[in-house]
Amino acid sequence: QVQLVESGGGLVQPGGSLRVSCAASGRIRELRAMGWYRQAPGKERELVATFTTGGSTNYADSVKGRFTLSRDTAKNTVHLQMNSLKPEDTAVYYCNAIIVTIASAREYWGQGTQVTVSS
């Protein structure tokens, strides 16, 4: 059984930094894509940053230059370093991955971690 386990997040003042991490575990044959989405109250879930199937990195325009996505391939883990945080970055952040197992190739979601930017 595949799981995405998130860590990090919390409360930070505007201009501060946080890091969230996501580790995929289970009988993984291939990790095709992995990254982060977020959902603020009353809004739709949106892409934050992701490593694509082709190996490139996509960032939302709103986080370019402030957020950095990195990965540890050996550990099936991605990290999202968030700097210069703004109140509008407040949201539940969800890890997302497309994972191939012996049984299927499908999308998985983490349980979400709250990021709150407030003074």
Task: Set out the fold topology.
Blueprint: E1 3-8, E2 10-12, E3 18-25, E4 30-39, E5 46-51, E6 57-59, E7 67-72, E8 77-82, E9 91-100, E10 105-109, E11 113-117
Parallel strand pairs: 2-11
Antiparallel strand pairs: 1-3, 3-8, 4-5, 4-9, 5-6, 7-8, 9-10, 9-11
Characterise the protein shown here.
This protein has 119 residues and is mainly beta. 0% of the residues lie in helices and 57% in strands. The protein has strands at residues 3-8, 10-12, 18-25, 30-39, 46-51, 57-59, 67-72, 77-82, 91-100, 105-109, 113-117. The radius of gyration is 14 Å and the shape is elongated.
What descriptors fit this protein?
seven-stranded mixed sheet; mainly beta; 119 residues
